[in-house]
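Lecture notes, continued. The same structure-token format from the folding unit now serves as the input rather than the output. Read the line below as a description of shape only.
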């Protein structure tokens, strides 16, 4: 009897070690980085444009300049100042092997803010990425480090908060660290989809199945399919008690009681975050802003630590009715279940691919008369019947090159070569840009010449063409020359017809002045560099656009 008891104890002990090892994160070590209750606008793993959300977006009650405090003891190891991305950010390294990140800040605490400002003036450069030693800026848990804001790639005031493994820089799900965020609401399922996997998931695409809700349980009518090989996807959101739609943390697909596929989003690296495009129905996401997550692994999706078990492909070898169950869970264990059945009906013939089919894990070059695209072996997540053709480019100096469709994701950069439709002088060649229109926006890069061809790199599909850009960039002031200014800042609106302003330099009375880049504008907050009552000031601004065209403008004002 004692032997049996010892064996039971040993088994339980081993199981407890296994569970602990799978989620060996310190509980309640990190505190809330704000002094108000955590209310999430987005969670870790939520699907965004071309990336997973890599932390928590904590609401600041639509306000800016709330105190942001250190989540635990440590030292400030890095800060960033950038136009997009994190905007102003602080990184704190902690002695337990983790680093916390605080982003979209308006301002650092006084001592750090002065350090950064001094370096910006010394470098004559606003954007910064500075690392620090452990003894420069030590912090204690709860110490003020910054003030919240809306800088960088932020659509509204909030604090972006991350926890990373210091050694690997892997981003970890902060909700696994024991933060007190009330959540008693199970994930909400709104629709089920199935795909004929004899084809690519891109063609013919998703087949929708309506679902019915009863409590946290969902049902759907028998799914009649015309293919022996299918996969499923789910449209669903998670909710915390205070409201916003959040991403799904844990999803499992079972057929006849056997697990077919499971994903759980505990950690993701920035090197892999673009694989989010291979986890969703990308066309639905781009067209309809719908996040439909595949319950299968696409052939070119190689995201580590995300999915486990089988690849989610369902092979129906008979015309019997099979049971399907989908189980969704949040970090707190709140659970929703969808049950349905699937049955194979008459199977349709598979359509063969063509010589322009791009497949995962195989590089491909596709050519037209005046263009060539070179796709790497990592370019696509699923097979693409790549339709590339030329059409009239209008005022462009090349034909417009249609690269399949913006509804197909590309994982990494490809090189596109386009031939001009006329001879250019050496001076004109220096002003050529390649522009890509991908529907929701356009981007442009400086053309790289290779003989008679111009090369450019992009990571989206759309319609590309070559443009000869002779227009100058400029800035437009919010005041008239020699005006007496009473506000707290200067604002200049950046203007360029094609591409972007890639370089901006401002000098006040002959000395470099620190302007911040806020989206397309340039903003200077008055400081000791421009005191009140100091007479007439001359502001000289030099801008350069993507094509390399330079413009210098001079403005005057009094303060």
């Amino acid at each position: 009897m004692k032997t049996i008891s010892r064996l039971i104890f040993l088994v339980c002990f081993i199981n407890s070690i296994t569970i602990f090892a799978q989620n060996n994160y310190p509980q309640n070590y990190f505190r809330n980085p704000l002094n108000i209750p955590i209310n999430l606008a987005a969670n870790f793993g939520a699907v965004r444009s071309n990336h997973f959300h890599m932390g928590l977006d904590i609401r600041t009650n639509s306000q800016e300049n709330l105190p942001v405090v250190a989540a635990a003891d440590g030292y400030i190891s890095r800060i960033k100042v950038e136009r997009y991305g994190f905007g102003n950010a602080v990184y704190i390294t902690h002695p337990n092997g983790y680093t916390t990140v605080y982003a979209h800040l308006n301002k650092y605490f006084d001592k750090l803010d002065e350090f950064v400002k001094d370096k910006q003036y010394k470098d004559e450069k606003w954007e910064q990425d500075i690392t620090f030693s452990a003894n420069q800026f030590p912090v204690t848990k709860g110490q003020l480090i910054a003030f919240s804001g809306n800088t960088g790639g932020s659509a509204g005031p909030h604090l972006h908060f991350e926890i990373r493994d210091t050694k690997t820089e892997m981003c970890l799900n902060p909700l696994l660290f024991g933060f007190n965020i009330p959540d008693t609401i199970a994930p909400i399922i709104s629709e089920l989809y199935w795909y004929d996997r004899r084809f690519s998931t891109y063609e013919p695409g998703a087949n929708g199945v309506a679902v019915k809700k009863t409590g946290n349980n969902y049902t759907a009518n028998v799914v009649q399919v015309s293919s022996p090989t299918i996969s499923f996807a789910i449209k669903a959101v998670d909710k915390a008690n205070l409201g916003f739609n959040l991403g799904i943390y844990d999803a499992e697909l079972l057929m006849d009681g056997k697990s077919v596929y499971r994903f759980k989003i505990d950690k993701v690296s920035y090197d892999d975050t673009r694989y989010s495009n291979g986890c969703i129905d990308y066309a639905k996401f781009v067209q309809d802003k719908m996040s439909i997550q595949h319950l299968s692994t696409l052939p070119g999706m190689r995201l580590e630590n995300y999915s486990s078990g089988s690849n989610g492909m369902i092979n129906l070898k008979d015309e019997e009715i099979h049971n399907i169950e989908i189980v969704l869970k949040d970090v707190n264990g709140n659970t929703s279940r969808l049950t349905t059945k699937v049955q194979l009906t008459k199977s349709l013939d598979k359509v063969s691919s063509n010589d322009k089919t791009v497949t995962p894990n195989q590089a491909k070059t596709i050519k037209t008369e005046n263009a060539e695209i070179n796709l790497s072996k990592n370019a696509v997540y699923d097979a693409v019947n790549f339709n590339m053709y030329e059409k009239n480019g209008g005022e462009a100096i090349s034909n417009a090159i249609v690269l399949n469709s913006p509804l197909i994701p590309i994982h990494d950069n490809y090189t596109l070569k386009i031939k001009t439709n006329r001879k250019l002088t050496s001076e004109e060649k220096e002003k050529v840009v390649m522009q890509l229109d991908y529907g929701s926006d356009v981007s442009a890069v400086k053309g790289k010449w290779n003989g008679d061809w111009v090369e450019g790199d992009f990571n989206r599909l759309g319609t590309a063409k070559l443009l000869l850009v002779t227009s100058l960039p400029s800035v437009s002031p919010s005041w008239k020359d020699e005006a007496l200014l009473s506000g707290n800042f200067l604002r200049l609106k950046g203007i360029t017809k094609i591409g972007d302003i890639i370089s901006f330099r401002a000098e006040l009375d002959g000395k470099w002045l620190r302007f911040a880049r806020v989206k397309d504008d340039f903003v200077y907050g008055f400081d000791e560099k421009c005191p009140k009552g100091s007479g007439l000031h001359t502001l000289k601004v030099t801008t350069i656009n993507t094509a390399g065209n330079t413009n210098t403008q001079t403005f005057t004002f009094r303060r």
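Point for the exam: Confidence is low (pLDDT under 50) at residues 1-22.
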